[in-house]
Amino acid sequence: MASNYELTHDITGIDWWRLADIMARAPLYDRKPFDLAMAFRNSYAVVFAHNDDKMVGAARATSDGVFYASIFDAVVAPEHQSCGVGRLMLEALIAKLPVERIFLTSVFGKEGFYEKLGFLRQTNAMGLYDELARGDAIARGVLTTHRTASSFGSENSPA
Ligand SMILES: CC(C)(COP(=O)(O)OP(=O)(O)OC[C@H]1O[C@@H](n2cnc3c(N)ncnc32)[C@H](O)[C@@H]1OP(=O)(O)O)[C@@H](O)C(=O)NCCC(=O)NCCS
């Protein structure tokens, strides 16, 4: 039940080794605790979910605070997934983003989670990845050199 979970929005006292472990087990990414600490510290807004004083989930957003924000690293420990924690965290994070547009990329198969939060699929998204991430993303079908539906939109129309 979502009411068993408490949210915080401060990185003070966060156990980055625990978050790295949650991410690896979720599964989402294998991330180094130091890199996670830097990424969350440099974010515009962060959210952590706790159960019995133990962190069980997190998410973060970068933003210019006016027009755009992007959400990253939404993750819930596997033993707490499907209990409403993800929704609780994301709704609280989105409430901290006073912007016109919020972007994210979804893990394949998780799009429905974001659709429940009101996100629509975006046909004109583009990504510039570093060489290592790019090869992996192309192999997984995340990036493509093929033309997509956005190629057929009207020219010069705003994003
Ligand atoms: C994706 C994730 C963050 C969702 O968190 P969660 O706590 O398990 O999800 P919730 O229980 O809050 O689900 C909220 C709603 O989304 C729905 N939902 C969750 N996952 C879904 C999915 N894969 N497809 C469709 N709907 C989904 C739930 O049924 C629920 O619907 P309801 O509110 O109508 O009952 C979590 O499962 C997770 O950490 N997964 C592994 C890491 C990952 O893939 N992260 C996403 C990065 S893009």
Which helices and strands appear, and what pairs or packs with what?
Blueprint lengths: L5 E3 L7 H10 L7 H9 L3 E7 L2 E10 L4 E9 L8 H11 L5 E3 L7 H6 L14 H9 L20
Parallel strand pairs: 4-5
Antiparallel strand pairs: 1-2, 2-3, 3-4
The protein binds coenzyme A (COA).
**Cα gyration radius (Å):** 17 Å
State the assembly state of the protein chains. Answer: single chain
- Total beta strand runs: 5
Mean pLDDT across every amino acid position: 94
Structural class: alpha+beta
> How many helix segments?
5
User: Strand portion, in percent?
Assistant: 15-25%
Number of domains: 2
CATH homologous superfamily placement of the largest domain: Gcn5-related N-acetyltransferase (GNAT)
What's the N-to-C terminus distance?
38 Å
Which CATH top level class of the largest domain fits? Alpha Beta
Which parts are unreliable, with pLDDT below 50 for 5 consecutive residues or more? Answer: none
**Helix proportion:** 25-40%
- Please outline the major beta sheet: 5 strands, mixed
